[in-house]
Amino acid sequence: MVTGSDGSDDTQEAIMRATYRALCEHGYANLTMQSIADELDKTKGVIHYHYDTKDALLVAFLEYLLEAFERNIAVDEDAPPDERLLTLIDTLLFGPPERGEFDHWELMTALLEIRTQAPFDEEFRRQLSQNYETVEAMFVATVEDGIEQGLFRDVDPELAAHLLFISLNGARVYQVTLQRDDIAEATKESLEEIVYGWLCRPEADVDTSSG
Amino acid sequence: MVTGSDGSDDTQEAIMRATYRALCEHGYANLTMQSIADELDKTKGVIHYHYDTKDALLVAFLEYLLEAFERNIAVDEDAPPDERLLTLIDTLLFGPPERGEFDHWELMTALLEIRTQAPFDEEFRRQLSQNYETVEAMFVATVEDGIEQGLFRDVDPELAAHLLFISLNGARVYQVTLQRDDIAEATKESLEEIVYGWLCRPEADVDTSSG
Questions:
Q1: Which of A51, A137, A204, B181 has a 20 to 30 A CA-CA distance from B124?
Q2: What is the pLDDT of residues A20-34, one digit of tens each?
Q3: Do B140 and B182 reside in the same domain of the chain?
Q4: Three-state DSSP class for residue A6
Q5: How many CB pairs under 8 A join A and B?
Q6: How many distinct structural domains can be found in chain B?
Q7: What is the pLDDT of residues A149-181, one digit of tens each?
Q8: Quick check: B187 contacting A, CB < 8 Å?
Q9: Could you please report the per-residue DSSP string of B12-28?
Q10: Distance from CA of B123 to the nearest CA of A (A)
Q11: Do residues B81 and B144 share a domain?
Q12: B101-120 pLDDT tens trace
């Protein structure tokens, strides 16, 4: 986001928050500059001073959402790989343990609405690709650490990361679109089974019985 | 779909196909009764005769899409469970082997657009839930058969079905929104690894080396 020394940071932050509220309230299809101005309690002119077009505003807004999302999923690099993996899974399913700036499911719903526009918008695709790469890279690094430490089997880290990423992605869309708040919990169970039943070395799993 | 003896079946089928073309061309946000009438090459009156409102038309349209989708994923019940599972995965990723009535990715894009409206529409949610249950039930039955035949480990079939379902769901959204036609292939690889590395009994996997 472009910053200035004249308090325009604050205004831009206020516009982003107003856009978020307007999106949550009206949905993407009914999101207008006027509805954002109403939430901001200012005229449309103030918004246009910072963003030429609605498209420019939405591109900045997606960047803003993805930055919030990436702050939310930061994990402790010193924890053991299996613990880090489960923390990452939990955070992507339920939001950060310390409540972030946004309600997790409202943020997920807002992101899904913008994602659905991505087939029609190259800039949205570019930003989302970057975000996906960031998240997948976190999974790859964690799986690689686990293999290196002898905790995980010698799987293809990219393949494992891809599986975890798409599962979480699918769970989120399922939960948001069908408003099923049991999906995250079922997904946590499935993925724990995959982490301990497939990814972790069998020795770690059957230690007591294999003598 | 309501049927009649006056050729209204054909008209309704033609309206559904026109809605599909209009959706693919204009996207959900710009889908109007007029754009559908243009594709149908008839007046809006013809559409209104069959469907009172745009909402009623879209509910019928979602049913139509989901029926096409369910016809596309029918599998051979007599094939061995692991083969059936892979066929189901393949079909959900790449469409039916014998090309269905619709282009697979166009159908997926159209469905995603309607799914994104589901948080705001109870009837959409009801239909999609039913469809999800149908697909998940196919996975559950296949995993249960595999366990019964001693081919799969004694996992929780619901949990395995959930994992497969959300992965495929997530892969589809990923591929459609970011227009990445390599995602389906990467997902196929990940899920084959899960089927053979986790779900199948280790004996089946290491048969040659365990003597």
A1: B181
A2: 999 888 878 788 999
A3: yes
A4: coil
A5: 126
A6: 2
A7: 999 999 999 999 999 999 999 999 999 889 888
A8: yes
A9: HHHHHHHHHHHHHHH-G
A10: 11
A11: yes
A12: 678 888 888 888 888 888 88
